[in-house]
Amino acid sequence: xxxxxxxxxxxxxxxxxxxxxxxxxxxxxxxxxxxxxxxxxxxxxxxxxxxxxxxxxxxxxxxxxxxxxxxxxxxxxxxxxxxxxxxxxxxxxxxxxxxxxxxxxxxxxxxxxxxxxxxxx
Length: 121
Description:
Elements: E1 4-8, H1 13-28, E2 33-37, H2 54-59, H3 65-74, E3 78-82, H4 83-89, E4 101-103, H5 105-110, E5 117-120
Helix pairs in contact: 1-3
């Protein structure tokens, strides 16, 4: 199966939620998956991680945003926080969930093979 690489380009929790669900499904199928949270999207990883629709998701028996991040990391999904976004948000690596990597768009694209699916959320 081709690798799945997703760029989360805005600080919208539902976009991150959708990207996490797709990436976790890809990893559960045994294939490579990675998310790159660009610029302001990095703020979605600030503790405590929460989405405005978390209560609705929990009421429907679905995981909240923090649980999705933890699940995706546990399945081997690479979650990469943009260095520039971290600087803009005043975030340091110790404020991100354990397992989240820090990088830039050049490195993310260098690791994206020609046969990978590249999506924008």
